[in-house]
Give the backbone structure.
Amino acid sequence: MSGIIRPCTPKNDQARIDTTRYIESFIKKFSPKSVLDIGCGDGYLEEKYADVICGIDIDAAKIEKLKSQGLKNISVSSATDLKFDNDHFDMVIAKDLIEHLELNDVFKMFAEVFRVLKPGGRFVLTTWRDCQQFWDKIDHVRPYSNKWVANLCKRGMPGFEVEYQKELSAGIPLFGVLRLEWLAHILADKLKFRVDHGIVVIRKK
């Protein structure tokens, strides 16, 4: 993990973020009974889906703060050493996390996720492409694009298959004001215009 603890968007703002909307849509689509959220941050998903999702984070102070606020389905743990049994979860989420890991730790995380996922379970993660906005954030280690994740599954982890992937827009001036974010994402996906984020759903065979 990076030596710098990553900042997290406050819970009140999480629901408005596009990557969060996509993740929630997959929770609704697949109706998992057990979900692990790696790098749970401020616990937005853990609070909203308390009966389904358990969260982990490497930041012990943040976990203690969330526990003091009443959250119980959270614990301190590392993405590279998951303290759960094999074939335990229907879904694993890693939102805004992979870019904070060195390459070897990404490989370890994928192996651990594969281990704790049930056959047929999904790994939902967000990605970053190589762009100036990425490098402007001091806690980012390196970018991992949708294509990189797909190549890892194809060439290094054949037990995983990419089920869905989509490019997300960095935003286009005035599109938000005009409520045309949906069009910005279509342009990002089809024309690769102002792309910075992505989202990938991987299925364990």
Remarks:
- The helical segments are 11-14, 18-30, 44-48, 60-68, 103-116, 132-135, 146-155, 181-191.
- The radius of gyration is 16 Å.
- The first strand starts at residue 35 and ends at 38.
- The chain has a mean pLDDT of 87.
